[in-house]
Design a protein that fits this description.
Radius of gyration: 29 Å
Shape: globular
CATH class of the largest domain: Alpha Beta
Strand content: 5-15%
Number of helices: 22
Number of domains: 3
Helix content: 25-40%
């Protein structure tokens, strides 16, 4: 026997000892159990709901990013996972992904809500998973009788119930386990010329295939058939689809929301058209004085603590009593909501989770069962959120503010106080700080829908892209967050008057995610673009949904929007899009009266500001300019330009009017 053989023989007993045995889990396999379940139990020790839930979410996440597991995957879990049985979830994640604490590829962060992020370290693709309400309900249905501190294995009394729930979770389809959002894996480019209002680097939008594109009209579901007849075609249902959208003043119609949602889906079924829903969470809350009446003890809802639910005019107040809004006609609204109010946010969570989402999930599930998922176009979340600034009011605003005793100046101090700022520690950039709060608020609203089981790819915020930042503090980038696709009002005026390049630039910084023009109409006063070009500015550049708006306050503007939306030119452009034909972008001529008037209006505003600064009373200018908006809404450009010229003459402005439009 050679020395090698002797060495092998002598080593055999040692080898047997080194092999040993793994511990035997408390598990009795049933014929219906998937093969992977035994591997999960081998790691964990017994069959329980939390570990199986972790395994299911881990496998879904790993598959979604295309990872093999073990060495090409990193996982971060956020949630209330400090103690068993909730902590067992982490063992399931480890078994399903191969990410481990030892390799430092599995990380856990304490949080109130469960969120799992899985990243493929080879290609950078990242997904975020949130448990569905169905899964959370099953996990909550187990009430352990095991006393804390005795270990996390089940007691004899728990054993049968645990295994029954765990096997239900193991057998559920993927879409009943988790809502998956694909996070944008494309790094942001270097933008050395960003303004001081540059967005936070973490504002990501879910990326996805762009497939089906929607043409939505904001109109009554009862008129869906009439809409289809007017347009003349509905699209092929695979790449193009016609639909309608139902606006909902959420607070004012809370009790009617379930029936309104069902009726909208019923119309979609009946006419084979897409349906979209819109929920406003901050403007129309007149019927909720229990949230905003801090100032009148003789009116319903009075509570002095409501001052924390509304915006403030300064670090020490006063709290706001009245808000101004012009959607065609200037009107007074209840106080400006404070977006950071915990009470106001709790109401949003309640309404979404308890009133809206249960019915919405039911209707979406019904569409899915019938193979008609495409009929659900999505949810428009919010209504052009802003933190208003009345520092430089136009004459019309100024008149109303004087009547109400409202001093010129910005709002937003209450929200800033809630975020740790103060008179002694103000933000470095006041507008940027307010813009971040708006972005954070939009993300919060959208997150409530995601937590309630609605896919982030079906959610769109409503940021007013053309609106002056100086008035609303809501720049284009506030529409980006990880709980929705970006969505904007896209009227071709203001910064969007010549093209949508400001939108395209912000989209490119974030990898060009799918987006929507949620409030659109080529016929808005000041717009000079034709309907085909207008649609092309959307659909030719990654837009997946256009929401045509015909609504406004007053008489002239709604009529103008309606006539434009259903003009022969518009209908031809709709049909071209729905038929899948190319949309051509035509050049815009800058030598137009609309551009001249906008340039002159800018000078009028500057002149009024000069009068204010010098102590002159500009009320006569304000009185004259009261006619400007009605003339613009009616499209009477010649009369409007004469009026503006008269205002400039009163202000002593004799500067030659430039022919080229200058952006605000």
């Amino acid at each position: 026997m050679n020395r090698f053989a002797v060495a092998v023989v002598l080593a055999l007993p040692t080898l047997a000892l080194a092999q040993g045995r793994l511990p035997q889990p408390d598990y009795h396999r049933q014929p219906s159990d998937p093969a992977w379940l035994a591997q999960v139990v081998q790691l964990h020790g017994h069959l329980g709901p939390s570990v199986v839930a972790g395994a299911r979410m881990g496998m879904i996440g790993r598959d979604a990013v295309g990872a093999k597991g073990y060495f090409d995957v990193e996982v971060t879990c956020e949630g209330p996972l400090a103690q068993p049985p909730q902590a067992c979830f982490l063992d399931g994640i480890q078994a399903a992904t191969g990410a481990t604490t030892g390799k430092r590829t599995l990380n856990w962060v304490q949080a109130d809500k469960l969120v799992v992020r899985v990243r493929n370290t080879q290609n950078g693709k990242t997904v975020e998973l949130r448990p569905t309400p169905t899964l959370l309900g099953l996990l909550a249905s187990f009430k352990s009788e095991t006393k804390a501190g005795t270990g996390h294995g089940p007691s004899q009394q728990d054993h049968e119930q645990l295994e029954q729930i765990a096997r239900k979770i193991a057998a559920m389809p993927n879409d009943e386990i988790a809502n998956v959002t694909i996070l944008n894996e494309t790094p942001a480019r270097d933008t050395r010329e960003q303004s001081s209002l540059a967005p936070p680097a973490s504002s990501e939008a879910p990326a996805s295939s762009q497939g089906l594109k929607y043409l939505i009209f904001w109109s009554d579901p009862e008129k869906a058939g009439e809409l289809a007849e007017r347009v003349g075609m509905k699209g092929d249902g695979k790449t193009r689809l016609l639909g309608f959208g139902l606006p909902n003043p959420t607070y004012e119609l809370e009790g009617q929301l379930p029936s309104r949602i069902r009726s909208a889906f019923a119309a979609a079924h009946e006419h084979d058209m897409a349906v979209m829903l819109h929920f406003d969470f901050h403007l129309r809350w007149k019927n909720r004085p229990d949230l905003w009446n801090w100032f009148d003890p003789n009116k319903p809802g009075y509570d002095p603590n409501n001052k924390y639910n509304v915006e403030w005019h300064g670090w020490d107040g006063p709290p706001n009593k009245v808000r101004y809004l012009n959607h065609g006609v200037l009107e007074r609204l209840p106080p400006h909501m404070c977006f950071t109010s915990k009470t106001a946010r709790a109401e949003v969570t309640r309404i979404v989770s308890k009133v809206i989402a249960p019915v919405l999930r039911e209707e979406i599930a019904r569409l899915k069962a019938e193979g008609k998922e495409a009929l659900f176009a999505g949810v428009l979340v919010g209504l052009e959120p802003s933190i208003d600034d009345y520092s430089k009011p136009n004459p019309e605003y100024m008149k109303m503010m004087n009547e109400d005793g409202v001093k010129a100046g910005p709002l937003g101090y209450r929200a800033l106080l809630d975020r740790g700022f103060s008179a002694d520690k103000p933000p470095d950039d006041f507008r940027k700080a307010l813009a971040k709060i708006i972005q954070e608020t939009i993300a919060f609203w959208c997150e409530q829908f995601v937590d309630a089981g609605i896919s982030a790819e079906k959610l769109y915020p409503h940021v007013a892209a053309p609106a002056p930042i100086e008035m609303m503090n809501a720049p284009i980038w506030t529409a980006f967050n990880k709980y929705s696709r970006p969505g904007w009002t896209t009227y071709a005026v203001g910064v969007l008057g010549e093209s949508f390049k400001p939108l395209y630039d912000e989209l490119e910084k974030r990898g060009n995610p799918a987006w929507a023009g949620v409030e659109a109409n080529a016929g808005i006063p000041g717009s000079v673009v034709d309907w085909e070009t207008y649609l092309a500015w959307h659909y030719n550049h990654g837009c997946v949904l256009v929401g045509v708006n015909m609504g406004a306050t007053g008489n002239d503007l709604p009529k103008r929007l309606w006539n434009s939306a259903f003009s022969g030119e518009a209908i031809a452009a709709y049909r071209q899009f729905l038929a899948g034909q190319p949309l051509v972008e035509k050049a815009i001529s800058l030598d137009r009266p609309e551009f001249r008037i906008q340039a002159k209006m800018k000078r009028v505003r500057a002149g009024v500001e000069r009068w204010h600064s010098s102590g002159k009373d500009p009320s006569a200018i304000g009185k004259l300019m009261e006619s400007a908006q009605p003339l613009a809404d009616a499209g009477k450009l010649r009369d409007l330009e004469k009026l503006v010229d008269q205002a400039l003459e009163m202000l002593g402005d004799t500067e030659k009017v430039p022919d080229v439009y200058r952006k605000e």
